Amino acid sequence: MRGIVVAGTVVLVILGIGDHAWWLAAGALLYLYLTYGRGSPGTPPPPAGGGTPPDSYRAYRERRDRQARWERRYRREHPFEARRQEREKSR
Fold it and tell me: Which of 54, 82, 79, 84 is nearest to 66 (CA)?
């Protein structure tokens, strides 16, 4: 992979003698390789729950209760929309 990137960069630099847009392409190629290429540490996959794991059960319980309060408030303030969403969810 590294050889391909180096060869491509050399070709783009040679082409860049007549047209400076190729210099930009060579720079972009090197930037992308250094940023996302092999050898750079990847980002860890997100947890299965979609969010960050709770620090403690108490923090988890507080977030869960806060979410439940927001959902109750939403159902109270938007009854028709809440019923429509419940019907779609039950399908």
Answer: 54
Query: For residue 86, what are the CA distances in angstroms to 64, 66, 77?
Result: 20, 20, 15
Q: What span, in angstroms and rounded, lies between the C-alpha atoms of 36 and 34? A: 6
Q: Say how far apart CA 72 and CA 70 lie, in whole Å.
A: 5
DSSP 8-73: HHHHHHHHTTT-THHHHHHHHHHHHHHHHSTTSPPPPPPPTTSSPPPSSHHHHHHHHHHHHHHHHH
pLDDT at 65: 96
pLDDT digit string (tens) for 23-81?
Answer: 788 888 878 887 877 665 555 555 555 566 657 888 899 999 999 999 999 989 998 98
